[in-house]
Design a protein that fits this description.
3-stranded antiparallel β-sheet; 367 residues; 9-stranded mixed β-sheet; alpha/beta; 15 helices
Amino acid sequence: MKKLGIYVHIPFCRKKCLYCGFYSKAGSTDMEQKHYIDGLLEDICAYGRRYGRSYEIDTIFIGGGTPSLPDPALIGRILESLSENFSIDTDAEITMETNPGTLTEDRLRDYRSFGINRLSIGVQSLDNRILKTLGRIHTAEEFLENFALARQAGFDNINLDLMFAVPGHTMEIWENTLDQVLELSPEHLSFYSLQIEEGTPFYRMFCDGVIREIPDELDRQMYHRAIGKLSGAGYVHYEISNAAKPGYRCRHNLKYWSMDEYLGIGSSASSYIDGVRFTEPPNPEFHINTKEDDMSEFVFTGLRKTCGIELAEFEKRFSQDFWQVYGDRKAELADFFTEGKLIEEDGRLRLSEAGIDISNAIMAVFV
């Protein structure tokens, strides 16, 4: 059977963060949450009838929103329904996103008993002033308590989300967060530069002059400082914004960067199956990729991985030599090769660490 990843979207939050551009809803009632998840269960059954006999599920990712906000029993029902309607690999990676401030010892033990074996905690910072700036509902102290409880509950595969280049951020604050996180020794770390997106409170604050963006130079210094500290602590920087201890790369997210198939269930969730890309309401889209679409996507998502793309894999997928397809763009890429920002060696094409800083410019050549 072919392998398939499943993403389940839980859009509820206690409070929407000031920077968040994802589809989510703050202030929902228990009844609203139950009604939404009842709808998810119907969708799982319908998708199971359509895809359940053709695929084996090797990754599940429950994201949000804040999936740790609803009654844990509702999360249990989702996983039970997935098991009833799909064939799930005994070694499947099952991840759930959580936020400090919503976790308790009982909840964590429930999640572990449901079969969740990978926890992703959105800590963002271990500086309380930065957490307040971001509009987070937790403190650094609450996160540290939650992390300890997660270990006690049996979670031995934990990711921590961190954010840098936040208004008011300094290198000292960022390094202090990194040092404290590394003392905890999580298996995986995701580190993202703040992006001020339209439609968010941060965007309005930026337009009104209430906040200012961190200078690009400091943003890049923070990024490279993180890579240096993580590499020195034994983590492998395997994707632009992700590093892991050996053996702990996020298998689900690798599907997105490797153009593997995945099914999204829930409002705004995206899917890519049999060359068809579609999203669920409230923003439904339906798009059948052309071969050219697939080739471009293979390149620009693959270049997010630090190992880059394998040129033989490109030819195997598309029955065309890579440079036969993109040879006419070599002139646009020449300076990137000369400066060592784009590297071709051992049958692979990849970005160097310096190339990651201008990755958008390089990837745009292939679109």
